[in-house]
Amino acid sequence: xxxxxxxxxxxxxxxxxxxxxxxxxxxxxxxxxxxxxxxxxxxxxxxxxxxxxxxxxxxxxxxxxxxxxxxxxxxxxxxxxxxxxxxxxxxxxxxxxxxxxxxxxxxxxxxxxxxxxxxxxxxxxxxxxxxxxxxxxxxxxxxxxxxxxxxxxxxxxxxxxxxxxxxxxxxxxxxxxxxxxxxxxxxxxxxxxxxxxxxxxxxxxxxxxxxxxxxxxxxxxxxxxxxxxxxxxxxxxxxxxxxxxxxxxxxxxxxxxxxxxxxxxxxxxxxxxxxxxxxxxxxxxxxxxxxxxxxxxxxxxxxxxxxxxxxxxxxxxxxxxxxxxxxxxxxxxxxxxxxxxxxxxxxxxxxxxxxxxxxxxxxxxxxxxxxxxxxxxxxxxxxxxxxxxxx
Length: 391
Hints:
Strand order of the largest sheet: 3-4-2-1-5-6-8-7
Structural class: alpha/beta
Number of strands: 14
Strand content: 15-25%
Protein backbone atom coordinates (compact mmCIF):
# COMPACT_ATOMS: atom_id res chain seq x y z
CA UNK A 1 0.00 0.00 0.00
CA UNK A 2 1.10 3.56 -0.64
CA UNK A 3 1.64 6.00 2.21
CA UNK A 4 -1.32 8.38 2.66
CA UNK A 5 -1.00 11.69 0.86
CA UNK A 6 -3.14 14.77 0.42
CA UNK A 7 -2.59 18.15 -1.14
CA UNK A 8 -2.16 21.33 0.85
CA UNK A 9 -5.35 22.71 -0.68
CA UNK A 10 -7.54 19.80 0.40
CA UNK A 11 -8.85 18.66 3.73
CA UNK A 12 -7.80 15.22 5.05
CA UNK A 13 -9.36 12.28 3.23
CA UNK A 14 -8.99 9.90 6.16
CA UNK A 15 -8.86 10.32 9.91
CA UNK A 16 -8.18 7.96 12.81
CA UNK A 17 -9.68 8.79 16.20
CA UNK A 18 -8.46 6.90 19.27
CA UNK A 19 -10.69 6.79 22.37
CA UNK A 20 -10.15 5.06 25.72
CA UNK A 21 -13.38 5.12 27.72
CA UNK A 22 -12.69 6.52 31.19
CA UNK A 23 -15.92 8.38 31.96
CA UNK A 24 -18.20 5.45 30.92
CA UNK A 25 -20.13 7.50 28.36
CA UNK A 26 -18.68 11.01 28.14
CA UNK A 27 -15.49 10.05 26.30
CA UNK A 28 -17.09 7.81 23.73
CA UNK A 29 -20.03 10.19 23.45
CA UNK A 30 -17.76 13.02 22.35
CA UNK A 31 -15.76 10.85 19.99
CA UNK A 32 -18.84 9.29 18.40
CA UNK A 33 -20.41 12.69 17.72
CA UNK A 34 -17.12 13.95 16.28
CA UNK A 35 -16.68 10.87 14.10
CA UNK A 36 -20.19 11.10 12.67
CA UNK A 37 -19.90 14.81 11.95
CA UNK A 38 -16.55 14.33 10.22
CA UNK A 39 -18.05 11.66 7.98
CA UNK A 40 -21.52 13.11 7.37
CA UNK A 41 -20.71 16.80 6.96
CA UNK A 42 -17.15 16.70 5.64
CA UNK A 43 -17.03 13.38 3.77
CA UNK A 44 -13.96 12.11 5.62
CA UNK A 45 -13.32 8.38 5.99
CA UNK A 46 -13.15 7.95 9.77
CA UNK A 47 -11.79 5.02 11.75
CA UNK A 48 -12.81 5.14 15.39
CA UNK A 49 -10.63 3.03 17.71
CA UNK A 50 -12.50 2.24 20.96
CA UNK A 51 -11.39 0.06 23.87
CA UNK A 52 -14.83 -0.37 25.51
CA UNK A 53 -17.48 -1.53 23.06
CA UNK A 54 -19.94 -2.32 25.87
CA UNK A 55 -20.18 1.34 26.89
CA UNK A 56 -20.27 2.34 23.24
CA UNK A 57 -23.25 0.07 22.53
CA UNK A 58 -25.32 1.73 25.29
CA UNK A 59 -25.11 4.94 23.26
CA UNK A 60 -25.28 3.25 19.87
CA UNK A 61 -27.29 -0.02 19.85
CA UNK A 62 -25.98 -0.90 16.37
CA UNK A 63 -22.51 -1.64 17.78
CA UNK A 64 -21.52 -5.31 17.81
CA UNK A 65 -19.46 -5.85 20.98
CA UNK A 66 -17.91 -9.03 19.54
CA UNK A 67 -16.61 -7.45 16.32
CA UNK A 68 -12.97 -6.51 15.99
CA UNK A 69 -13.86 -4.35 12.98
CA UNK A 70 -17.26 -3.10 11.85
CA UNK A 71 -18.91 -0.19 10.05
CA UNK A 72 -21.54 1.78 11.96
CA UNK A 73 -23.25 4.81 10.40
CA UNK A 74 -20.54 4.82 7.70
CA UNK A 75 -17.80 5.06 10.35
CA UNK A 76 -15.29 2.20 10.63
CA UNK A 77 -15.13 1.06 14.26
CA UNK A 78 -12.09 -0.88 15.48
CA UNK A 79 -11.88 -2.60 18.84
CA UNK A 80 -8.75 -1.22 20.50
CA UNK A 81 -7.77 -4.24 22.58
CA UNK A 82 -4.16 -3.55 23.54
CA UNK A 83 -1.04 -1.53 22.76
CA UNK A 84 0.46 -4.29 20.63
CA UNK A 85 0.42 -4.64 16.89
CA UNK A 86 2.51 -3.80 13.85
CA UNK A 87 1.06 -1.30 11.39
CA UNK A 88 1.98 -0.38 7.84
CA UNK A 89 2.03 3.14 6.44
CA UNK A 90 -1.03 2.24 4.40
CA UNK A 91 -3.00 1.76 7.62
CA UNK A 92 -2.19 5.25 8.89
CA UNK A 93 -4.76 8.00 8.35
CA UNK A 94 -4.02 11.47 6.99
CA UNK A 95 -4.93 12.91 10.39
CA UNK A 96 -4.56 11.06 13.69
CA UNK A 97 -6.38 12.22 16.81
CA UNK A 98 -5.91 10.84 20.29
CA UNK A 99 -8.61 11.89 22.70
CA UNK A 100 -7.40 13.28 26.01
CA UNK A 101 -3.86 11.88 25.82
CA UNK A 102 -4.92 8.24 25.52
CA UNK A 103 -1.50 7.03 24.24
CA UNK A 104 -2.07 5.36 20.90
CA UNK A 105 -0.22 2.09 20.13
CA UNK A 106 3.57 2.47 19.66
CA UNK A 107 3.38 0.44 16.45
CA UNK A 108 0.93 2.93 14.97
CA UNK A 109 3.20 5.83 15.94
CA UNK A 110 6.17 4.07 14.35
CA UNK A 111 4.20 3.70 11.11
CA UNK A 112 3.25 7.37 11.26
CA UNK A 113 6.93 8.29 11.31
CA UNK A 114 7.50 6.35 8.06
CA UNK A 115 4.74 8.12 6.11
CA UNK A 116 5.58 10.69 3.43
CA UNK A 117 4.18 13.21 4.04
CA UNK A 118 3.71 12.52 7.73
CA UNK A 119 0.19 12.65 9.11
CA UNK A 120 -1.14 15.49 11.19
CA UNK A 121 -1.17 14.32 14.82
CA UNK A 122 -3.50 16.00 17.30
CA UNK A 123 -4.32 15.49 20.95
CA UNK A 124 -7.94 16.56 21.47
CA UNK A 125 -8.08 17.74 25.06
CA UNK A 126 -10.92 18.01 27.58
CA UNK A 127 -13.22 21.01 27.80
CA UNK A 128 -12.63 23.72 30.37
CA UNK A 129 -13.39 27.43 30.67
CA UNK A 130 -10.11 28.16 32.46
CA UNK A 131 -8.09 30.89 30.77
CA UNK A 132 -4.83 28.93 30.65
CA UNK A 133 -6.08 26.79 27.76
CA UNK A 134 -5.89 29.79 25.44
CA UNK A 135 -2.09 29.73 25.76
CA UNK A 136 -1.90 25.96 25.23
CA UNK A 137 -4.33 25.61 22.34
CA UNK A 138 -2.51 24.41 19.17
CA UNK A 139 0.88 24.18 20.95
CA UNK A 140 3.33 21.67 19.41
CA UNK A 141 4.88 18.72 21.26
CA UNK A 142 7.78 17.10 19.35
CA UNK A 143 8.20 13.35 19.79
CA UNK A 144 11.36 12.61 21.83
CA UNK A 145 12.85 10.19 19.31
CA UNK A 146 10.82 10.17 16.09
CA UNK A 147 10.39 12.89 13.43
CA UNK A 148 6.81 13.60 14.53
CA UNK A 149 5.13 16.52 16.22
CA UNK A 150 1.85 16.32 18.07
CA UNK A 151 -0.28 19.44 18.53
CA UNK A 152 -2.73 20.06 21.34
CA UNK A 153 -6.23 21.09 20.39
CA UNK A 154 -8.55 22.42 23.09
CA UNK A 155 -12.30 22.81 22.80
CA UNK A 156 -13.50 25.95 24.50
CA UNK A 157 -15.78 28.90 24.83
CA UNK A 158 -14.08 31.65 22.82
CA UNK A 159 -12.33 32.24 19.51
CA UNK A 160 -8.91 31.57 21.09
CA UNK A 161 -9.86 27.92 21.52
CA UNK A 162 -11.36 25.22 19.30
CA UNK A 163 -15.04 25.87 20.04
CA UNK A 164 -17.76 23.33 20.84
CA UNK A 165 -19.13 20.34 18.99
CA UNK A 166 -22.26 21.36 17.06
CA UNK A 167 -23.65 19.72 13.96
CA UNK A 168 -25.01 21.81 11.10
CA UNK A 169 -28.69 22.56 11.60
CA UNK A 170 -28.71 21.41 15.23
CA UNK A 171 -30.48 24.46 16.64
CA UNK A 172 -33.05 24.49 13.85
CA UNK A 173 -33.87 20.84 14.59
CA UNK A 174 -34.19 21.62 18.26
CA UNK A 175 -36.44 24.61 17.66
CA UNK A 176 -38.72 22.60 15.39
CA UNK A 177 -39.07 19.90 18.04
CA UNK A 178 -39.65 22.35 20.89
CA UNK A 179 -42.33 24.11 18.84
CA UNK A 180 -44.22 20.83 18.39
CA UNK A 181 -46.00 19.87 21.66
CA UNK A 182 -47.49 16.76 20.09
CA UNK A 183 -44.09 15.46 19.03
CA UNK A 184 -42.78 16.04 22.55
CA UNK A 185 -45.71 14.22 24.13
CA UNK A 186 -45.35 11.26 21.77
CA UNK A 187 -41.66 11.11 22.55
CA UNK A 188 -42.28 11.02 26.33
CA UNK A 189 -45.15 8.54 26.04
CA UNK A 190 -42.68 6.22 24.36
CA UNK A 191 -40.95 5.96 27.74
CA UNK A 192 -44.25 5.19 29.50
CA UNK A 193 -44.93 8.63 30.98
CA UNK A 194 -48.52 9.31 31.97
CA UNK A 195 -50.41 12.49 31.13
CA UNK A 196 -49.82 13.76 34.68
CA UNK A 197 -46.07 13.06 34.47
CA UNK A 198 -45.84 14.91 31.18
CA UNK A 199 -47.75 17.91 32.58
CA UNK A 200 -45.44 18.17 35.61
CA UNK A 201 -42.14 20.02 35.74
CA UNK A 202 -39.84 17.57 33.95
CA UNK A 203 -36.23 17.18 35.05
CA UNK A 204 -33.64 14.87 33.47
CA UNK A 205 -30.99 13.56 35.88
CA UNK A 206 -27.60 12.33 34.65
CA UNK A 207 -24.96 12.49 37.38
CA UNK A 208 -21.98 10.79 38.99
CA UNK A 209 -22.49 8.42 41.95
CA UNK A 210 -21.34 10.94 44.57
CA UNK A 211 -23.95 13.57 43.63
CA UNK A 212 -26.33 14.40 46.55
CA UNK A 213 -29.35 12.85 44.87
CA UNK A 214 -31.12 11.89 48.12
CA UNK A 215 -31.03 15.46 49.40
CA UNK A 216 -32.42 16.80 46.15
CA UNK A 217 -35.17 14.18 46.07
CA UNK A 218 -36.17 15.10 49.61
CA UNK A 219 -36.44 18.76 48.61
CA UNK A 220 -38.52 17.95 45.55
CA UNK A 221 -40.95 15.83 47.53
CA UNK A 222 -41.87 18.89 49.60
CA UNK A 223 -42.73 21.02 46.58
CA UNK A 224 -46.26 22.15 45.80
CA UNK A 225 -45.61 21.79 42.07
CA UNK A 226 -45.35 18.17 40.84
CA UNK A 227 -41.93 17.15 39.48
CA UNK A 228 -41.17 14.25 37.16
CA UNK A 229 -37.54 13.17 37.36
CA UNK A 230 -36.29 11.09 34.41
CA UNK A 231 -33.12 9.17 35.22
CA UNK A 232 -31.20 6.73 32.98
CA UNK A 233 -30.91 3.14 34.12
CA UNK A 234 -28.04 2.64 36.57
CA UNK A 235 -27.60 6.35 37.33
CA UNK A 236 -28.17 7.81 40.80
CA UNK A 237 -27.11 4.71 42.69
CA UNK A 238 -28.50 3.95 46.12
CA UNK A 239 -30.58 7.13 46.31
CA UNK A 240 -32.66 6.19 43.26
CA UNK A 241 -32.99 2.59 44.40
CA UNK A 242 -34.13 3.72 47.85
CA UNK A 243 -36.74 6.02 46.35
CA UNK A 244 -38.03 3.33 44.00
CA UNK A 245 -37.81 0.52 46.54
CA UNK A 246 -36.27 -1.65 43.81
CA UNK A 247 -33.38 -1.86 41.38
CA UNK A 248 -33.12 0.92 38.82
CA UNK A 249 -34.25 -1.03 35.80
CA UNK A 250 -35.71 0.76 32.81
CA UNK A 251 -39.46 1.31 33.20
CA UNK A 252 -39.45 1.39 37.01
CA UNK A 253 -41.21 4.34 38.62
CA UNK A 254 -42.45 5.51 42.00
CA UNK A 255 -44.03 8.62 43.52
CA UNK A 256 -43.59 10.21 46.93
CA UNK A 257 -45.06 13.59 47.73
CA UNK A 258 -44.72 15.89 44.73
CA UNK A 259 -41.96 13.80 43.15
CA UNK A 260 -42.25 11.01 40.60
CA UNK A 261 -39.05 9.25 39.54
CA UNK A 262 -39.07 7.24 36.33
CA UNK A 263 -36.13 5.18 35.07
CA UNK A 264 -35.37 5.39 31.34
CA UNK A 265 -33.23 3.09 29.23
CA UNK A 266 -30.03 4.47 27.79
CA UNK A 267 -30.93 5.84 24.39
CA UNK A 268 -29.04 6.72 21.19
CA UNK A 269 -27.59 10.21 21.15
CA UNK A 270 -30.34 11.78 18.96
CA UNK A 271 -32.96 10.64 21.48
CA UNK A 272 -30.91 11.94 24.38
CA UNK A 273 -30.88 15.32 22.66
CA UNK A 274 -34.67 15.17 22.40
CA UNK A 275 -34.89 14.34 26.09
CA UNK A 276 -32.87 17.46 26.94
CA UNK A 277 -35.02 19.52 24.58
CA UNK A 278 -38.23 18.23 26.18
CA UNK A 279 -37.36 18.65 29.85
CA UNK A 280 -37.78 21.91 31.74
CA UNK A 281 -34.49 21.43 33.58
CA UNK A 282 -31.49 19.18 32.98
CA UNK A 283 -28.82 17.78 35.28
CA UNK A 284 -25.88 16.66 33.15
CA UNK A 285 -22.40 15.32 33.81
CA UNK A 286 -18.93 15.12 32.30
CA UNK A 287 -18.42 16.78 28.93
CA UNK A 288 -20.67 15.36 26.22
CA UNK A 289 -24.04 15.87 27.95
CA UNK A 290 -22.72 19.19 29.33
CA UNK A 291 -22.24 20.54 25.81
CA UNK A 292 -25.56 19.13 24.61
CA UNK A 293 -27.35 20.83 27.50
CA UNK A 294 -25.99 24.16 26.31
CA UNK A 295 -27.49 23.60 22.87
CA UNK A 296 -30.81 22.44 24.40
CA UNK A 297 -31.83 25.94 25.43
CA UNK A 298 -33.02 24.80 28.87
CA UNK A 299 -31.65 25.62 32.34
CA UNK A 300 -29.11 23.02 33.45
CA UNK A 301 -26.71 22.03 36.21
CA UNK A 302 -23.31 20.52 35.42
CA UNK A 303 -21.99 17.64 37.54
CA UNK A 304 -18.29 17.93 36.74
CA UNK A 305 -15.96 14.93 36.77
CA UNK A 306 -14.21 14.90 40.18
CA UNK A 307 -10.47 15.54 40.31
CA UNK A 308 -7.81 15.39 43.00
CA UNK A 309 -7.43 18.44 45.25
CA UNK A 310 -10.89 19.58 44.08
CA UNK A 311 -9.52 21.00 40.86
CA UNK A 312 -12.92 20.37 39.32
CA UNK A 313 -14.33 23.13 41.53
CA UNK A 314 -11.96 25.58 39.83
CA UNK A 315 -13.27 24.45 36.44
CA UNK A 316 -16.86 24.74 37.56
CA UNK A 317 -16.40 28.28 38.88
CA UNK A 318 -14.59 29.30 35.69
CA UNK A 319 -17.56 28.17 33.61
CA UNK A 320 -20.13 29.83 35.87
CA UNK A 321 -18.18 33.06 35.59
CA UNK A 322 -18.07 33.21 31.80
CA UNK A 323 -21.64 31.96 31.45
CA UNK A 324 -22.91 34.93 33.43
CA UNK A 325 -24.46 32.76 36.14
CA UNK A 326 -21.89 33.26 38.90
CA UNK A 327 -24.20 35.33 41.12
CA UNK A 328 -27.47 33.54 40.45
CA UNK A 329 -29.37 30.91 42.36
CA UNK A 330 -28.36 28.51 39.61
CA UNK A 331 -24.70 28.95 40.54
CA UNK A 332 -25.46 28.30 44.21
CA UNK A 333 -27.21 25.06 43.29
CA UNK A 334 -24.38 24.07 40.93
CA UNK A 335 -21.77 24.57 43.64
CA UNK A 336 -23.81 22.59 46.16
CA UNK A 337 -24.44 19.80 43.64
CA UNK A 338 -20.67 19.46 43.16
CA UNK A 339 -19.88 19.55 46.89
CA UNK A 340 -18.15 22.93 46.57
CA UNK A 341 -20.26 24.31 49.43
CA UNK A 342 -21.27 22.64 52.70
CA UNK A 343 -24.36 22.53 54.96
CA UNK A 344 -26.69 23.26 52.05
CA UNK A 345 -30.39 24.00 52.46
CA UNK A 346 -31.68 22.02 49.51
CA UNK A 347 -35.34 23.10 49.64
CA UNK A 348 -34.21 26.74 49.69
CA UNK A 349 -31.68 26.19 46.90
CA UNK A 350 -34.26 24.66 44.59
CA UNK A 351 -36.91 27.22 45.52
CA UNK A 352 -34.51 30.01 44.54
CA UNK A 353 -33.74 28.35 41.21
CA UNK A 354 -37.42 27.74 40.47
CA UNK A 355 -38.14 31.43 41.10
CA UNK A 356 -35.38 32.46 38.64
CA UNK A 357 -36.13 29.99 35.85
CA UNK A 358 -37.35 32.62 33.35
CA UNK A 359 -34.26 34.72 33.97
CA UNK A 360 -31.99 31.68 33.70
CA UNK A 361 -33.67 30.53 30.50
CA UNK A 362 -33.17 33.97 28.96
CA UNK A 363 -29.39 33.41 29.06
CA UNK A 364 -29.61 30.49 26.63
CA UNK A 365 -30.08 32.26 23.28
CA UNK A 366 -27.33 34.90 23.61
CA UNK A 367 -24.98 32.23 24.96
CA UNK A 368 -25.65 29.95 21.98
CA UNK A 369 -25.16 32.81 19.55
CA UNK A 370 -21.86 33.63 21.23
CA UNK A 371 -20.71 30.02 21.00
CA UNK A 372 -21.73 29.67 17.35
CA UNK A 373 -19.74 32.80 16.49
CA UNK A 374 -16.60 30.89 17.55
CA UNK A 375 -17.21 28.23 14.89
CA UNK A 376 -17.89 24.57 15.59
CA UNK A 377 -15.12 22.37 16.92
CA UNK A 378 -15.11 19.92 14.02
CA UNK A 379 -14.68 22.58 11.36
CA UNK A 380 -12.08 24.44 13.41
CA UNK A 381 -10.15 21.21 13.95
CA UNK A 382 -10.13 20.40 10.23
CA UNK A 383 -8.99 23.90 9.33
CA UNK A 384 -6.09 23.61 11.76
CA UNK A 385 -5.18 20.16 10.44
CA UNK A 386 -5.20 21.53 6.89
CA UNK A 387 -2.90 24.38 7.95
CA UNK A 388 -0.43 21.93 9.48
CA UNK A 389 -0.55 19.67 6.41
CA UNK A 390 0.31 22.54 4.10
CA UNK A 391 3.53 23.39 5.92
